[in-house]
């Protein structure tokens, strides 16, 4: 675990740059201020350029976080970039547009994710994924709860070690990885639609298209 090598917690986000926003930066800054010595690993395709990095540094400094606590990495091709999770203890999900693939990848690499459940589909992806792996307690209901959840998890190093060593098995055993079961449910839905169409003589679909 990175903490065991470095002696400090590393938070991280590999979410797309377009998903990052001032409200998110405010929460992340509060998390960093609440965990002395911690740092934030930021990695996405936008960080190939100096200008976005400089803008982020200025924003975090305005929020009371020294630039030395920010670690920037450009986003490389898959699957090599997954090695970045070897440097991250806790992933911080983006909001209001949550990560989907990014969250699954973090969990697969053993990194727990703190998310905030919003009021629309794109803001509930994190809650759905974490719920399926039995980690609903890492889903916050407000920005302040998001901050508190991240800080509390950072202080429970034993739990972080346990999660890191068992997360891939947890994910593999969840319904998220039940490809056969998902396919059966999808096939059943197709059959149900076909039976309804047959029993209506096609009238229901015709009416919908009219």
Number of beta-strand segments: 6
Low-confidence stretches: none
The CATH class of the largest domain, by name, is Alpha Beta
* Whole-number total of structural domains: 2
Morphology: elongated
Report the β-strand fraction as a percent range. 5-15%
Instruction: Summarize the helix and strand pattern as letters.
Output: HEHEHEEHEHEHHHH
CATH homologous superfamily designation of the largest domain? Glycogen Phosphorylase B
Radius of gyration, taken over Cα atoms and rounded to an integer in Å = 20 Å
> Largest sheet at a glance?
6 strands, parallel
Give, in spatial order, the strands making up the sheet with the most strands: 3-2-1-4-5-6
**What proportion of the residues is helical, as a percent range?**
40-55%
Average pLDDT score: 91
Structural class: alpha/beta
Kindly report how far apart the N and C termini lie.
Answer: 60 Å
CATH fold category name of the largest domain: Rossmann fold
User: Architecture of the largest domain, according to CATH?
Assistant: 3-Layer(aba) Sandwich
Q: What's the helix count?
A: 9
């Amino acid at each position: 675990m990175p903490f065991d090598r470095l002696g400090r917690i590393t938070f991280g986000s590999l979410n797309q740059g377009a998903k990052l926003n001032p409200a998110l930066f405010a929460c992340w800054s509060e998390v960093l201020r609440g965990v002395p010595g911690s740092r934030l690993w930021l990695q996405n395709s936008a960080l190939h350029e100096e200008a976005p990095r400089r803008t982020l540094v200025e924003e975090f400094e305005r929020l009371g976080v020294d630039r030395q606590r920010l670690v920037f990495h450009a986003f490389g091709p898959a699957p090599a970039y997954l090695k970045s999770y070897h440097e991250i203890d806790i992933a911080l999900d983006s909001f209001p547009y949550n990560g989907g693939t990014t969250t699954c990848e973090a969990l697969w690499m053993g990194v727990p994710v703190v998310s905030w459940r919003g009021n629309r589909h794109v803001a509930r992806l994190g809650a759905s994924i974490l719920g399926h792996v039995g980690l609903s307690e890492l889903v916050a209901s407000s920005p302040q709860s998001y901050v508190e959840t991240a800080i509390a998890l950072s202080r429970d190093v034993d739990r972080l070690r346990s999660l890191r060593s068992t997360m891939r098995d947890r994910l593999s055993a969840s319904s998220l990885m039940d490809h056969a079961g998902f396919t059966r449910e999808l096939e059943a839905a197709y059959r149900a639609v076909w039976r309804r169409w047959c029993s209506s003589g096609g009238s229901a679909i015709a009416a919908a298209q009219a």
